[in-house]
Design brief:
This protein has 117 residues and is α+β, with helices and mostly antiparallel strands. The chain has one domain (2-113). The chain has three helices and six strands, in the order ααββββαββ. The chain has helices spanning 2-6, 12-26, 81-93, and strands at residues 31-35, 38-48, 52-59, 62-67, 108-109, 112-113. The strands form two sheets. It has a four-stranded antiparallel beta sheet with strand order 1-2-3-4. The chain is globular, with a radius of gyration of 14 Å. The termini are far apart.
């Protein structure tokens, strides 16, 4: 699956764009999931500068992007959730993909980890 998402991608920026395209095509939205104990509706998968691939979540009138790596999936998961898992696996091994886990992960520059970058 990862190879299919990354076909014709040169470098991590293009790989991220490739994954976004596949996720947008293959993951069925909207779907409902629970974030911090409240139900939200995932309306779309987006690619945001500085944030990477995010789920655009809605609760009432409030919209909040949540990093796809951090988004809890419902049970049963939405159609195409296997692509989210493939993205998470790829992102785990991609050194410059950002995480929103603790603010301590950022882009690597010259072999050094930059906090909050």
């Amino acid at each position: 699956m990862i190879a299919e998402a990354l076909v014709d991608a040169y470098g991590e920026d293009e790989e991220l764009v490739g994954f976004h395209a596949v996720l947008s095509d293959r993951v069925t939205v909207p779907f409902t999931t629970e974030v911090l104990g409240v139900d939200v509706i995932v309306e779309e998968i987006d690619l945001r500068p500085g944030s990477g691939v995010v789920a655009i979540c809605r609760r009432g009138r409030i919209l909040q992007p949540i990093g796809l790596r951090d988004l809890p999936l419902p049970d049963p998961p939405p159609e195409g959730a296997e692509w989210i898992e493939a993205f998470r696996h790829w992102a785990l091994w991609s050194p410059s993909v950002k995480s929103t886990h603790d603010g301590a992960v950022g882009r690597h520059r010259g072999g050094m980890r930059i906090r909050g970058a």
